[in-house]
Amino acid sequence: MPQMNANLNHQFNTNLSRVQPTPIRVFDNNASKIPGIVKLTLGEPDFNVPDVAKKAAIQSINDNDSHYSAGSGTPQLRQAIANYLQNRYDLTYDADSEIAVTIGATEAIYASLFAIINKGDQVLIPTPTFPLYEAIVNLLGGEAINIDTSDNDFVLSPDALKKALADHDHVKAIVLNYPSNPTGVTYSADQLKAIADVLADTDLVVIADEIYSELIYGGHHTSIAKFIPGQTIVLNGASKSGAMTGYRIGFMAAPAELMKRIGMVHSIMITSPSDPAMAAAVPIFDSDDGHQATLDMKAAYEARRDFLVAALQKLDFTVTTPRGAFYVFAKIPADQGTDDVKFATKLAQEGKVAVIPGSYFGDGGEGYLRLSYATSMDNLKLAVDRIKDLLNK
């Protein structure tokens, strides 16, 4: 195997030194090597892709739909997304100029941040949250400003937002992820309106990652774009609601002038998404069968959530019932200390249950564990039994 010329060590983008391997993946990979382990680690739906999406993908292949599409996605999918946003969230976007299909929500996050960040620009990120946002900001030469929300039930308050704005003078954008990964917390319309009122007096770009919007229990998702559409980029996709993580279909929606700039980055990055994958996503966003498939999966997630929350509370974990996504963010029992990495490592090695340490999600996550219930009820019951056994030792 070839060895890299050592002199090339001086040729890399220096921002790469600011990006570390994703600790979630590292922990999951190490835990996966333990024989017989039950994994509650990754946000990977355990359901199969709905039949209506499979049939659409197969039809696309049989129709020889295998050529370059428009860089922003097929007209059919962009129109389906526009209909979805209008019908589900009362958001109006033009399919031709204000929506672009991306390679998952991940590419949408990167393209959005790339289009607006210059060296030294600051991005506000309420934490705990998915670490990808900070990693991308660092890679682009920006500075991530974490806002710890743990003292307010993991909800960003207007006062905390105002303080962050007052304390930093190069803020360019804010990233809002709700329902949240890792906490499962989401925002009511009133809470979003209060945040929007603060942001409306600024020129910040709001990147609203709403990939879990369809997985809300006991309520309905409201987008912050409902209140400040002129400065918001809405990110979403089919990965979570359609169990289509491997199809890599996300999207972003924003005012035409904003989308024009982001679209420049997007088109350079990917040329265009896959035709069969886009065909599969159309009925997920814009058909009764697709919507029903999502509702069926959500009902199963809700039952799992209720079981897991009750079981963990009986074991003296501090847990607030999450209102969205498919994660429980549980505080370790007081008699087990506060070192979440140590506890999670012990749980994996001795208890054969893999979860993710809360500190991996930034400020405010220390002493917590993230447990994904995107797995079978049988796995959840086995995991709870094993956790109980470990605590009783």
TrEMBL record:
This protein's record includes keyword RNA-binding: no
Lineage: superkingdom: Bacteria
Annotated keywords: Aminotransferase, Pyridoxal phosphate, Transferase
Ranges of residues in domain Aminotransferase class I/classII large: 37-387
Name used for this protein in its record: Aminotransferase
GO molecular function list: transaminase activity
Similarity field: Belongs to the class-I pyridoxal-phosphate-dependent aminotransferase family.
PANTHER family (alphabetical): AMINOTRANSFERASE, ASPARTATE AMINOTRANSFERASE
E.C. code: 2.6.1.-
Cofactor: pyridoxal 5'-phosphate
InterPro entries registered for this protein in UniProt: Aminotransferase_I/II_large, AspAT/PAT-like, NHTrfase_class1_PyrdxlP-BS, PyrdxlP-dep_Trfase, PyrdxlP-dep_Trfase_major, PyrdxlP-dep_Trfase_small
UniProt organism field: Limosilactobacillus coleohominis
